């Protein structure tokens, strides 16, 4: 067990804890950059079609989507703040002037409680799985990022789904934790344990193909750019590879995103009005209804907004994450080199010293 862990650290150059710190830093940086775009989008939506009681909308902090329920009788909620905007840029300027720059991150803290752990689990699991698979797969190691990305996403979605359901219930029903636990126990008793993972299937339909394609294309793109420029992975290389691979995955999985978002909103509104979620349509029925109402083009609705949101989020997250890992990797090599200097006079030709020297020069 120890030797397996040591081989993984030797392969990646950093420890799992350092991977977690790097992914946590990347998650926070990404949310700070991307959230203002979504806050402005929601404010423009609310201006065009005011949100009534129980209405749900999707809030994205650049890391994951969250269902938010309009609070009953709360006219002071950030998404109900008055204002007349003539477009995205006008909304940015007026929100900053009238409400202060902090308003561009309205609603962010509660969502980070879910999004940051989900991102840490996802990225750390990916790196660990990818390193292990590359060792085991040998000549077929090129497909390791595809498999690792898919499995890592399944794991993170499975862990976070019940927590996101609880967060939505807390927000929509204003219950105490004692009341909430009673509701959850009743739901599990009547509908089974699967009720805690309601909406899990549609989420996987979108996120697993996205993750598999994203990581496969990212690793391929990063390698190609490094070879083209005869360089190690730099911030600009990882940023470019992340943006391009994220865009490709977003385009291909767009129909699944449309269906997942529609079903997520329907489930949230049913919970907010205390209706049985069993009457909500299945993923297949939602897809049929979208096609019947809007044709096949309905499955590709929101193409440009999704691309504008996903591409920079992927680019910022992966470049920040890779930058953090590079700092830790360099720090670890310097520590190893310093330790080796104490031994060099006694055992100058040890294999361990040669290995450390090769890693440092690489």
If you had to describe this structure to a student in words, what would you say it looks like?
With 362 residues, the protein is mostly helical. It has 12 helices and 2 strands. The chain has helices at 2-12, 16-48, 88-99, 108-137, 144-173, 177-191, 200-229, 235-252, 254-272, 283-294, 303-341, 351-361, and strands at residues 56-60, 65-69. It has a two-stranded antiparallel ribbon with strand order 1-2. Helix 2 packs across helix 4 (108-137). The longest helix is centred in the C-terminal third of the chain and has 39 residues, at 303-341. Residues 1-7 have low confidence and may be disordered.
Q: Provide the gyration radius in Å.
A: 23 Å
Q: Kindly estimate the percentage of residues that lie in beta strands according to DSSP.
A: under 5%
Secondary-structure content class: mainly alpha
| Helix count from the secondary structure assignment | 12
Spatial arrangement of strands, main beta sheet? 1-2
How many runs of DSSP E, i.e. beta strands?
2
List unreliable stretches of 5+ residues: 1-7
What form results from the Cα inertia axes? Answer: globular
- Ends apart, CA distance between termini: 27 Å
Percent helix range? over 70%
Provide the fold topology:
Elements: H1 2-12, H2 16-48, E1 56-60, E2 65-69, H3 88-99, H4 108-137, H5 144-173, H6 177-191, H7 200-229, H8 235-252, H9 254-272, H10 283-294, H11 303-341, H12 351-361
Antiparallel strand pairs: 1-2
Helix pairs in contact: 2-4, 2-11, 4-5, 5-7, 7-8, 7-9, 8-11, 9-10, 11-12
């Amino acid at each position: 067990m120890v030797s397996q862990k040591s081989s993984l650290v030797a392969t990646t150059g950093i420890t799992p804890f350092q991977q977690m710190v790097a992914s946590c830093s990347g998650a926070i940086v990404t949310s700070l950059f991307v959230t203002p775009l979504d806050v402005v989008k929601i404010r423009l939506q609310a201006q065009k079609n005011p949100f009534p009681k129980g209405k749900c909308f999707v809030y994205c902090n650049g890391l994951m989507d969250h269902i938010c329920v309009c609070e009953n009788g709360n006219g002071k909620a950030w998404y109900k703040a008055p204002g007349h905007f003539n477009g995205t840029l006008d909304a940015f300027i007026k929100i900053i002037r009238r409400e202060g720059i902090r308003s561009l991150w309205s609603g962010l803290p509660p969502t980070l409680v879910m999004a940051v752990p989900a991102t840490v689990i996802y990225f750390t699991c990916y790196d660990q799985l990818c390193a292990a698979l590359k060792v085991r797969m040998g000549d077929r190691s090129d497909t390791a990022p595809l498999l690792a990305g898919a499995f890592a996403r399944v794991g993170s979605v499975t862990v976070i789904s019940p927590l996101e359901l609880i967060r939505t219930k807390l927000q929509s029903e204003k219950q105490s934790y004692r009341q909430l636990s009673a509701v959850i126990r009743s739901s599990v008793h009547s509908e089974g344990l699967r009720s805690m993972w309601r909406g899990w299937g549609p989420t996987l339909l979108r996120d697993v193909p996205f993750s598999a394609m994203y990581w496969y294309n990212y690793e391929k793109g990063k390698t190609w750019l490094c070879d083209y420029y005869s360089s190690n992975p730099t911030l600009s290389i990882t940023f470019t590879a992340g943006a391009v691979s994220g865009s490709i995955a977003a385009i291909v999985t767009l129909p699944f995103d449309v269906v997942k978002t529609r079903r997520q909103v329907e489930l949230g509104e049913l919970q907010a009005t205390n209706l049985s979620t069993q009457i909500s349509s299945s993923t297949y029925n939602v897809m049929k209804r979208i096609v019947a109402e809007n044709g096949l083009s309905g499955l590709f609705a929101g193409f440009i907004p999704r691309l504008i949101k996903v591409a920079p989020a992927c680019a910022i997250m992966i470049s920040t994450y890779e930058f953090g890992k590079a700092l830790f990797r360099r720090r670890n090599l310097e520590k190893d080199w310093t330790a080796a200097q104490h031994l060099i006079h006694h055992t100058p030709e040890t294999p361990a010293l040669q290995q450390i020297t090769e890693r440092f020069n690489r």
